[in-house]
Design brief:
By secondary structure, the chain is α/β, with parallel strands linked by helices. Helices cover 50% and strands 13% of the residues. The strands form three sheets. A four-stranded mixed β-sheet has the order 3-4-1-5. A four-stranded mixed β-sheet has the order 2-6-8-7. Helix 4 crosses helix 9.
């Protein structure tokens, strides 16, 4: 299982390492929504959450599916600009201006990525154009709660309105907390970008990718980058470029934007690894047995990022609901997942703090 990027014909000058303020804001929102993914940031997340204006906090909950699971490609609009060679902006406003260069179909489909199960690596029908896709998107949004359903309805009815909403929301986040953290991390990101650029120029792409992550490999004969992830996907630079975007807030996530028709992006963490707690010996055997099945490993990849219903997991994995339920029961008996009811929906999620005690290698593997 891996994500593969075909780089046939890619010229060295079309490879760029550039920080993005908007991408870093997306990662900050993710860390605030899922502090369990980022133990080293829990103190910061607690402090930010405690001083948030209640209106801004409500808006965060309203659209958290844009960043809670991982974060939406809308936080990297530069990758979707026609020509597939646009670089991130130097400022948050410049990055936000690039949102206006996306077509309505691009904007809506990227926003619905985690609630609509649209094709990602291949061309597909837009939710704006197909009534059945639209209905499914709203049904799946309903499973996330009434706020997400209302937001999705507004998104489908009036994309320009949501563009304006997102722009204002980003600016309000900048004023409330992001400007402070961006001022602190942008120098580290710029220094890392310079270092990786020097490696590209003097030692080549293979050396630069190795410095980014051991999960990245380059097959020069096949002109292909392979990203070792618990997921399948493919992309190609074609006549465009390849972007490497560093993040100070992203560990352990190594993300690959491989949306069909968009410029491929490797979004990678910089800085020291966060410490991992030792595993719990008493439950180690039961938990490792539960995690040894490939289907349950794939389920953990989804459940580590967000809550899902049994029906959603069955649809994504091409299995029946009873089959998914049996695997969920094994994970629950081992104390690896939590469940809660929201109306008529039962939502499941991986307890990442428990998994972390089994070892950072497994956790980083499923969150990569």
């Amino acid at each position: 299982m891996s994500v593969r990027i075909d780089i046939t014909g890619l010229r060295p000058e079309r490879i760029a390492v550039v920080p993005s303020p908007l991408a870093e804001l997306g990662m900050a929102l993710h860390a605030l929504s899922e502090p369990g993914h980022h133990p080293g940031l829990q103190g910061w997340a607690t402090g930010v959450t405690a001083r948030l204006d209640s209106h801004l906090a409500d808006r965060m909950c309203e659209a958290d599916f844009l960043w809670r699971t991982t974060f939406s490609d809308l936080f990297m609009p530069f990758a979707g600009v026609p020509g597939r060679s646009t670089l991130p902006g130097a400022t948050l406003d410049e990055d936000l201006d690039l949102l206006d260069k996306l077509a309505d179909e691009q904007f809506v489909d990227a926003a619905l990525e985690f609630t609509c199960a649209l094709p990602y690596s291949t061309a597909g029908v837009s939710a704006l154009d197909d009534a059945e896709v639209r209905r499914r998107a709203l049904d799946l949004a309903a499973a996330r709660g009434p706020q997400q359903l209302r937001f999705s309805e507004r998104l489908l009815a009036d994309p320009p309105r949501i563009r304006s909403w997102l722009r204002q929301f980003a600016r309000d986040c900048d004023e409330a907390f992001f400007a402070e953290i961006w001022a602190r991390v942008r120098h580290q990101l710029a220094a890392d970008a310079r270092h990786k650029t020097d490696l590209l120029r003097h030692k080549g792409l293979a050396e630069a990718l190795s410095a980014v992550s051991p999960a990245l490999t380059l097959d020069e004969d096949a002109a292909r980058i392979t990203v070792d992830k618990l997921g399948d996907g493919r992309s190609a630079t074609a006549d465009g470029g390849l972007l490497l975007v560093p993040t100070s807030l992203g560990r352990p996530h190594l993300m690959v934007l491989h949306r069909h028709g968009w410029q491929p992006v490797l979004h990678y963490p910089v800085g020291s690894p966060e410490p991992a707690a030792p595993p719990s010996v008493g439950q180690l055997t039961m938990r490792m047995t539960a995690l040894s099945h490939p289907v349950r490993m794939r389920l953990c990849r989804y459940l580590a990022r967000s809550e899902y219903t049994t029906g959603e997991l069955a649809q994504v994995h091409g299995m029946t609901a009873p089959e998914i339920s049996r695997h969920l029961a094994v994970l629950k008996k081992a104390g690896l997942i939590t469940t809660r009811r929201r109306g008529r929906y039962v939502l499941h999620q991986l307890d990442v703090t428990v998994v972390a005690r089994l070892g950072s290698d497994f956790l980083e593997g499923i969150l990569r």
